[in-house]
Protocatechuate 3,4-dioxygenase subunit beta
Amino acid sequence: MAAPTELKLPRYGPDPEGTHPPLGFTGYRSTALRHPHQPLVLLPQMLTEVTGPLLGPGRLGEHDSDLTRQHAEEPQGQRIVVTGRLLDGDGRPVRDSLVEIWQANAGGRYRHTGDRWPSPLDPNFDGVGRALTDSDGRYTFTTIKPGAYPWKNHDNAWRPAHIHFSVFGSAFTQRLVTQMYFPDDPLFSQDPIFNSIPDEKARQRMISRYDHDITRPEWALGYQFDIVLRGSEASVFEEEEDED
């Protein structure tokens, strides 16, 4: 009879100062109305952290990782392949982890009732996907490059093109939500969400890298975007977006 598997709680060291945005950021006006004003309370670690819900293969549909094949017709816009590795704070791959994305369409519009600016909806693009990481911690999505869109944070405000990511580590409580941007976007300089990250190096880790090796001939451009859950190279926790 095999010996029972020993359950061990993961231990979390602090991320470097400046990696994550402050709870309130002057340039991002809606944070003043919703960020907590009392000190945060750290909950003790319990065994439920490693025995909680598992988000495995049963959660995936046939075309969940290919957002260009979820309808009868193809969506409008530039096809892209986005791939990368999910790593823990020591650089080890996080296997069999659920990665979810959501994004605007090529015209910069989300498929939800709160997005009503006059850019057309694409009937063949929902803008949501999910994938599981493989044994090397790698995920891959085929999608459409999202467009920029206006929001009412300040005069003539536009969000840079971006894709939202939600990932889970080796435990249910290790969820990280972040944003992936594209290289050389001219809207970086006026975007308070991007610029709320104090550390310049951490800010740059939110920008994907064009990769010609994964670009598919006559089909799709390729981008690399690794996600690190903790440590000196930790990915940035995003500020929650508010288009009002």
In short: Residues 200-204 form the longest helix (5 residues).
